[in-house]
Predict the structure.
Amino acid sequence: MSTFVYLLELDKMNSCYQLLCKKCKKKYGHILDVRNINCTLVQYGLYKEYGIERDIIICKSENGAPYIQNEDTRISLSHGKKMTGCAFSDNCVGLDIQEVIKYKLGYADFLLSAYEKDILKSSEDKDLFLTTMWTLKEAYGKYLNVGLKYDFARTGFDYSLSVEHTVNGTVYKSEQLHGSVISCVSKDSSVYYEVGIEELLRFIIKTS
């Protein structure tokens, strides 16, 4: 079984973007546009992968983790300044999105394990390396359902984009898209899809 990741570029210059926000808000009613869009992405992904057409309700647990009401499918949501997305699976899953950040030594001390610090020394792009590690740690914390309470330096991840790795019984992969890094951690291989604004707009118009 695969884990599916559906992504959307937050392209506010696209002529359809504001209409998409309007349609998503009308259907889901959240204050934040990105939250409404993520609800639509989940609905779209479930339809594409499982043929689920009924409307879903996304709730939050006591620790803030999202879940689908009356559904067994597990989800994880994330967004940055340029990208937003959802991941869903039959098992626990964690997703994180972050635009590339500037390398700072303090970040490395806080974030990286001893193993990762050794990799950092020979890294040609420390900004990209640090961003990838950040998203992996965030995604792993979501996977464990502990969020930011996770000790970032506790687990050492391997570094390479678009390549699957394993750690502690999980499968993880990171991709770079539109200046952002997207990382997913789950029990299964992950498949990434980018959805166009026009495509998602057609979907929500059709299903509203």
